[in-house]
Design goal:
By secondary structure, the protein is mainly alpha-helical. It has one domain. It is built from five helices and no strands. Helix 1 packs antiparallel against helix 2, helix 1 packs parallel to helix 3 and helix 3 packs antiparallel against helix 4. The longest helix has 40 residues. It is elongated.
């Protein structure tokens, strides 16, 4: 099946995933916006939303994990008022490792989804798939 751009649905879906992998937020949002506004293929629409949702999912996880060093810094700043200090050096290393693992998982997931999309396939990604399904249901009645 072809899109209004004249390329296959699978190629445009793969483009959304690969842009998330290589180009960042703005290109993914532009492709997803185009797909939602102008394309009618349900698989393509869900794939574009899933590409954005995966990028958001991993960004939110990284932000949540980033609160831990911020909380430690807050406690340290409060302790410095009273000429003390507070730090947990190993926590920074664990946070760095966790963020690196998340980055690798995100990149692998987007890469695999991009190649699957070329054949209009997908792989399940639990919470993201449930959110996409919930928020893409059409209300025809």
């Amino acid at each position: 099946m072809k899109t209004k751009l004249g390329i296959s649905v699978g190629l445009l879906g793969a483009t959304a995933y690969f842009l998330g992998l290589f180009a960042g937020w703005l290109p993914v949002l532009l492709v997803a916006g185009y797909v939602l506004l102008f394309e009618s293929n349900e698989w393509l629409r869900k794939s574009a939303i899933k590409a954005v949702a995966i990028c958001i999912f991993f960004a939110v996880l990284s932000a949540i994990i980033g609160f831990v060093p911020n909380a430690i810094k807050l406690i340290d700043d409060a302790c410095r008022i009273f000429k003390g200090s507070f730090s947990i050096a190993v926590v920074s290393k664990i946070i760095d490792l966790t963020n690196t693992v998340l980055m690798v998982v995100e990149k692998i997931l987007l890469l695999v989804l991009g190649f699957k999309a070329l054949r209009q396939g997908t792989i399940s990604f639990g919470v993201v798939d449930r959110l996409v399904a919930k928020h893409t249901q059409r209300d025809d009645g």
